[in-house]
Amino acid sequence: MGHVTLIRHGQASVQGATYDALSPLGHEQARQLGLYWADRGVTFDTVLVGPRQRHAQTLAHVEAVYRERGLYWPHAQLVADLDEHHGLTVLKRAAGIQETGDALLSGDESRDAAIKRLFGRFREIMHEWASGGFAAPDIEPWHAFRARAIAVVDHLCADAGRSVAFTSGGLVSAVVGAVLGLDDHRVIHLSAEIHNTALTELRHRPGEVGLVNFNTVPHLREPHLITRV
Fold first, then answer.
1. pLDDT in tens, 14-73
2. Alpha-carbon distance 50 to 62, whole Å?
3. Beta-bridge partner residues of 87
4. Burial of 72 per CB tally in 10 Å (0-12, 13-18, 19+)
5. Span 2-84+141-225 CATH architecture
6. CB neighbour class for 183 (10 Å; exposed up to 12, middle 13-18, buried from 19)
7. Per-domain residue ranges for the chain?
8. Using CA atoms, how far apart are residues 80 and 170, in angstroms rounded to an integer?
9. Cβ contacts of residue 195 below 8 Å, gap of 6+?
10. Predicted model pTM
11. How many Cβ atoms from other residues are within 10 Å of residue 14's Cβ?
12. Which of 6, 79, 119, 169 is the most buried (most CB within 10 A)?
């Protein structure tokens, strides 16, 4: 029987030159995850990482803790299908935000104001996208994203042993949706609830995949470390 742990990246930089980088708090969340696992002697046979910088940075903190402790950490395999959906691009276009690279907001806007403005209509906009709205050549359709999540489940469960994958919250929710047979509505609502660096665990054997844990943060012991955006 195999075991898969999915990790959402640490908090990203909502206010910064690029969203695709951990915030100072995100760096601390990722290190706390590494410390938690190292203290308990957690080991993995396989490590997978998505293509975003925030995925790699979260992984790097965990790996650094293991190296500091003299513990074994497998070489990570880059898996493009672990990428997030294009929901952030959809949100920005729906909000009428001028897109300049990966920056999310102007430097004179507070983080709280940005979160309220961008994510206040998150579910509404995501449902419109899932229904076929916001079609554009540079946006992966929602149905294609969900198909990609099914392929990710097959990839993750191809081998026995213990594996960990560093990815994003939308992909985690879509994987859970694939395993549990959830509709778009439920997957979208799950994606809004996943904490930064949260653990979601699957157990699998040939012909069967089950959900063990969803969205747990045992490594984040201080309330200020627990974030969703």
1. 766 678 999 999 999 999 999 999 999 999 999 999 999 999 999 999 999 999 999 999
2. 15
3. none
4. exposed
5. 3-Layer(aba) Sandwich (3.40)
6. exposed
7. 2-84+141-225
8. 14
9. 8, 215, 217, 220, 226, 227, 228
10. 0.91
11. 18
12. 6
Q: Quick one: tokens of 210?
A: 């089950």
CB count within 10 Å of CB 110 equals 11
CA 30 to chain centroid: 12
Six-digit token pair at 26? 């995100």
Length of the chain: 229
**Strand-pair partners of 49:** 78, 166
Read off the amino acid at residue 72. Y
Q: In what order do the strands lie in the sheet with 46-49?
A: 76-78, 46-49, 161-167, 2-8, 199-205, 208-216
Structure tokens at 62: 């965990």
Report the Cα 160 to chain-centroid distance in Å: 23
The structure tokens 């998505």 sit at 50
